[in-house]
From TrEMBL:
<dbReference type="Pfam" id="PF03167">
    <property type="entry name" value="UDG"/>
</dbReference>
<keyword id="KW-0227">DNA damage</keyword>
<dbReference type="InterPro" id="IPR036895">
    <property type="entry name" value="Uracil-DNA_glycosylase-like_sf"/>
</dbReference>
<keyword id="KW-0408">Iron</keyword>
<dbReference type="GO" id="GO:0004844">
    <property type="term" value="F:uracil DNA N-glycosylase activity"/>
</dbReference>
<protein>
    <recommendedName>
        <fullName>Type-5 uracil-DNA glycosylase</fullName>
    </recommendedName>
</protein>
<dbReference type="GO" id="GO:0051539">
    <property type="term" value="F:4 iron, 4 sulfur cluster binding"/>
</dbReference>
<dbReference type="GO" id="GO:0006284">
    <property type="term" value="P:base-excision repair"/>
</dbReference>
<keyword id="KW-0378">Hydrolase</keyword>
<dbReference type="GO" id="GO:0033958">
    <property type="term" value="F:DNA-deoxyinosine glycosylase activity"/>
</dbReference>
<keyword id="KW-0479">Metal-binding</keyword>
<keyword id="KW-0004">4Fe-4S</keyword>
<feature type="domain" description="Uracil-DNA glycosylase-like">
    <location>
        <begin position="46"/>
        <end position="212"/>
    </location>
</feature>
<keyword id="KW-0234">DNA repair</keyword>
<dbReference type="InterPro" id="IPR044147">
    <property type="entry name" value="UdgB-like"/>
</dbReference>
<comment type="similarity">
    <text>Belongs to the uracil-DNA glycosylase (UDG) superfamily. Type 5 (UDGb) family.</text>
</comment>
<dbReference type="InterPro" id="IPR051536">
    <property type="entry name" value="UDG_Type-4/5"/>
</dbReference>
Length: 221
């Protein structure tokens, strides 16, 4: 078992946040009609991607009927569809769709995961739940030795990454913001590709494409 595989196993075995354990199970018991009868993963969701990744795409939390259902990060919901299309255009994904495990998707020089690995009620994890998950981010980064850029999707992921890194001062979140850590890892911010942001035009496809292309430039050796 590789280092990154061991991290993934540790993630899936975690049950340290009682509120999240209860909610991920509740979401599986009471799915929306479009998913009725489908088996749910209903466990913490590990990161996914290329072990040689230079770019890590970090989201907020596992989606109740996305990753919590499919068992793969950024899979099976509109946010995943928007993100993976953009990653495909940027040459970071083998195909423009992310529907289920085993659908053929491969990430190319990229890794993806969430700051909080379980689905939280209302998609709002607490600071304590965020901090409980931070060791998994530390372990993943350590197991991805070629990593150069951490793309933070939304203010929560940006704040999480700065908190994780112990950054001082902490730059404010803004779409396209960059911050280089003492380790050399570059944090790069984007609005989150939630339906609220994409439907209102706060985030457009060209805007997300520009961030991912910038990530590729920063990740070059």
């Amino acid at each position: 078992m590789t280092g990154i595989e061991a991290v993934g196993r540790a993630v899936t075995e975690c049950s340290r946040c009682p509120r999240l354990v209860a909610w991920r199970a509740e979401a599986a018991r009471t799915p929306p009609a479009r998913f009725a009868g489908e088996p749910y993963w209903a466990r913490p969701v590990p990161g996914f991607g290329d072990p040689a990744a230079r770019i890590y795409v970090l989201g907020l939390a596992t989606a109740a009927h996305g990753g919590n259902r499919t068992g793969r990060a950024f899979t099976g919901n509109p946010t995943a569809a928007w993100l993976v299309r953009s990653m495909h255009r940027a040459g970071l994904a083998s195909q423009p769709t992310s529907e289920r495990r085993g659908d053929g998707l491969r990430l190319l020089g990229a890794w993806m995961g969430s700051a909080v690995r379980c689905a939280p009620p209302g998609n709002r994890p607490t600071p304590a739940e965020r901090d409980t998950c931070l060791p998994f981010l530390t372990a993943e980064v350590a197991a991805l030795p070629r990593l150069r850029v951490l793309v933070c999707l939304g203010a929560f992921a940006w704040t999480t990454a700065l908190h994780w890194a112990g950054a001082r001062p902490r730059p404010r979140f803004a779409h396209g913001a960059e911050h280089r850590l003492e380790s050399g890892l570059v944090l790069l911010a984007s609005y989150h590709p939630s339906q609220q942001n994409t439907n209102t035009g706060l985030l457009t496809e060209p805007m997300l494409d520009a961030v991912l292309h910038r990530a590729r430039t920063l990740a070059e050796p």
